[in-house]
Design a protein that fits this description.
The structure is a single chain. Helix 2 packs antiparallel against helix 3. This protein folds into 2 domains: 104 residues, no CATH class; 109 residues. By secondary structure, it is of the alpha+beta class. The chain has 7 helices and 10 strands.
């Protein structure tokens, strides 16, 4: 076959799919929307569940079908519990998260949802979370945090030349054992305000995570005061 003819066929083969690709997505989206609207129930929901309805709301709002989406939003609001989660008789994290996105898209009240989701977390990893306070001075640091969702704790920790006498004289303070037993295991998300102004101004406050032989410097603050955030939460199917 002539090389020029062969080249022409190759170019046609490469170009044609792109031509169809330019028109196909819009047509497919329109067909998808028509199919979706046929599945909407008379009450506004889809398949009678929060998950499907929330996804449908997001799809319809993106494709300009606002009236049907608002009807679905009205149904969604009937499925919210007094604590803010979805569905009200059997709250699940995935349904609650998707419902939050759908409601937010239509500027509905979602104020209760973040609080429920925050409390629904379970501890992910409790191998070793450590607090390191580097200072050549001796003195006490104040640690303040909220545990078990609403209990305030205020603890003084002695630091002697970067070591913790209350934790075996180690350079790192085990947050899950030496500060409080099972503190991290019982509080998957923890914000600890550390005040070491009684030590030198050159104090360094660090959060370290270790697992097996791996060490991770999660946070490092070159200041005698710092807000250390332990992000140790994960989500299961339902609450905790």
């Amino acid at each position: 076959m002539n090389k020029k003819i062969l080249l022409m066929f190759v170019l046609i083969f490469l170009i044609v799919p792109f031509v169809f690709a330019e028109t196909k997505p819009a047509d497919s989206a329109e067909k998808g929307l028509k199919w979706l609207l046929k599945k909407q129930g008379t009450d506004g929901g889809f398949n009678g569940n929060v998950f499907d309805t929330s996804l449908s709301v997001l799809a319809m709002s993106s494709l300009g079908s606002r009236t049907e989406a608002e009807k679905a939003i009205d149904w969604l609001k009937t499925q919210q519990s007094s604590q803010g989660c979805f569905p009200k008789n059997n709250c699940r994290t995935k349904d609650t998260s998707l419902a939050a996105l759908a409601l937010k898209k239509f500027e509905q009240d979602t104020s209760k949802i973040p609080d429920w989701l925050g409390k629904a977390q379970s501890p992910a990893l409790t191998d070793s979370w450590w607090l390191q306070i580097s200072s050549s001075a001796n003195g006490q640091c104040r640690l303040e945090y909220t545990k078990n969702n609403d209990q305030r704790a205020n603890i003084s920790v002695q630091v002697n030349n970067s070591r913790f006498p209350s934790c075996g004289g180690n350079n790192w303070l085990d947050l899950n054992a030496c500060l409080e037993p099972n503190l991290i295991a019982n509080n998957p998300s923890l914000n600890i305000n550390v005040d070491c102004r009684a030590l030198s101004p050159s104090t360094i406050i660090s959060l370290i995570y270790t697992t097996s032989n791996n060490y991770y410097l999660v946070q490092d603050e070159h200041s005698p005061q710092a807000s250390i955030i332990v992000k140790n939460g994960c989500f299961g199917i339902a609450y905790r």
